[in-house]
Design brief:
Helices cover 14% and strands 38% of the residues. The protein is mainly beta. It has a domain of 41 residues. α1 packs antiparallel against α4.
Length: 355
C-alpha cells in the first residue's frame, strides 16, 4: 500500500533538487532586448535587478546606452571624449560610465592629463562626479594617469582601478555617499604570482560585498580571476575549480571574471580550443556551469558580461549575419518542478478520497 506522505515528500525532494542544480543547457536566451536596435555593434555590458541593460553602441560618437536611451559622454570645454560605455548601473537609476580621451588635452577640473577616466551619474541628467578627481596618490609627476570604473552597487560603491606612479594598477572602491575611497590590498595576489601591472576590476555585487578581479601571471601571462570579499577582507579564489584553472593555464589566453552578484555567483568566460566558453560559478558550493551558449549565434562566441541577483545573465555573441547579437538569459523552472506543482491538486484529491 502506498504511503501518501512518502509520495509527496519524494516529489518535493526531486523537484527542489533539480531546481537548484541548473545546467548550462537550461538557459533560455532572449535576443530582443530593449536597446538601440539600429547599431550593428551594440555591446551589452551590465544589468541591474530591474532588468535594465547598459552598454555601448558603435556609432560616430560611440555612445553608452541604458536600455534604448543613448547616454552621451560628459563634455566640457577641455574634453574630447570617445568612446564611452555604461559599465555599471544600480537599481536606483545611478550608473557609471567609462570614457576615453582621444586628444590628449587636460580633461578634469584638476587638470589631470588622462587617457581614460570614469564618471558617476546619480541620474542621466545629473552633473557627473569625475572619479579620478576623488583619488589621491595616483598621479605621476606630470599629473597624468588613467582610471577605469567597472561596476556600481545599490549602496553607492564604485569598483575600479587606476594606474599608479610606479606603473602598477591599484584597485579601489569609491563610496559616492561619503566621497571617500579604499584601495584594496592586492599583496596576496602579487605574492601568488600576479603581475601588478595587470590587476583590474570587473563587476561589483549589488550589496557592495563582492568585487570581481582579473590579473595575469607575471611569468606565464596566463589570465586568472578572483573575487574580493570586502566584508570579510579576503580573497575568494575561483581557481580552486579545476576546469577553470586548466582553461587559464592551457595557453588559450585565460579565464576572465566579468560580474558577480550578492549571492556569490560569478560569471565570465574562458578561451578554449573551441573558442570562447562562458560560465557561471557558485563560489559558495563550487558548482560550475560551463559552455553557456546562445545557439542562435556564431558558435564559440558567447560572452557573458554580467549577472543580477535574480540570476539573469547579460552579454553578447557573434551574429551569424554580422555584428553583435546581445542577449539576456534566464534559467526556466525545471519540468520536474512543474510536474510537482501539477501533482499537488491530484494528491489533495487522493487524500480526500481516502479520508
Amino acid at each position: 500500500m502506498f504511503d501518501r506522505k512518502n509520495i509527496l515528500t519524494a516529489v518535493i525532494l526531486i523537484g527542489s533538487s533539480v531546481s537548484t542544480i541548473a545546467q548550462a543547457g537550461d538557459y533560455q536566451f532572449n535576443n530582443n532586448l530593449n536597446i538601440p536596435a539600429s547599431q550593428k555593434w551594440d555591446t551589452a555590458l551590465s544589468i541591474n535587478n530591474n532588468g535594465n541593460v547598459g552598454g555601448q553602441v558603435s556609432n560616430s560618437g560611440n555612445s553608452g546606452f541604458i536600455d534604448n536611451t543613448l547616454v552621451p559622454g560628459y563634455t566640457n570645454p577641455d574634453t574630447n571624449i570617445s568612446p564611452n560605455s555604461v559599465t555599471g548601473l544600480n537599481d536606483n537609476g545611478a550608473f557609471v560610465q567609462q570614457v576615453m580621451n582621444n586628444d590628449g588635452v587636460y580633461t578634469s577640473p584638476q587638470n589631470v592629463l588622462s587617457g581614460a577616466e570614469g564618471y558617476y551619474y546619480s541620474s542621466p541628467n545629473a552633473t557627473p562626479v569625475v572619479i579620478q578627481d576623488q583619488l589621491s596618490g595616483f598621479q605621476f609627476a606630470n599629473g597624468s594617469y588613467s582610471s577605469y570604473v567597472t561596476g556600481l552597487s545599490n549602496t553607492g560603491e564604485v569598483a575600479g582601478y587606476a594606474q599608479a606612479p610606479d606603473a602598477t594598477n591599484k584597485v579601489f572602491e569609491y563610496n559616492v555617499n561619503t566621497g571617500t575611497y579604499t584601495t584594496l590590498d592586492t599583496t596576496a595576489l602579487i605574492a601568488a604570482g600576479a603581475d601588478p601591472r595587470t590587476i583590474e576590476t570587473g563587476g561589483i555585487s549589488s550589496n557592495g560585498q563582492y568585487i570581481a578581479i582579473n590579473y595575469a601571471n607575471a611569468i606565464s601571462g596566463d589570465e586568472y580571476g578572483s573575487i574580493y570579499d570586502t566584508v570579510h577582507n579576503r580573497w575568494v579564489s575561483l581557481m580552486g575549480n579545476t576546469s577553470l584553472e586548466l582553461a587559464a593555464s592551457a595557453g588559450f589566453g585565460g579565464t576572465f571574471i566579468t560580474g558577480v552578484n550578492k549571492n556569490g555567483e560569478a560569471v565570465g568566460w574562458s578561451y578554449t580550443a573551441y573558442g570562447i566558453s562562458s560560465f557561471v560559478l557558485q563560489t559558495a558550493t563550487g558548482h560550475l556551469m560551463q559552455n553557456i551558449s546562445d545557439f542562435s549565434a556564431v558558435p564559440g562566441s558567447t560572452v557573458v558580461t554580467g549577472v543580477n541577483d535574480n540570476g539573469m545573465l547579460v552579454g553578447y555573441a557573434g551574429n551569424r549575419a554580422g555584428g553583435n547579437l546581445n542577449f539576456e538569459a534566464t534559467v526556466p523552472v525545471p519540468g520536474v518542478l512543474w510536474l510537482m506543482l501539477a501533482a499537488l491538486p491530484g494528491l489533495r484529491w487522493f487524500r480526500v478520497q481516502q479520508a
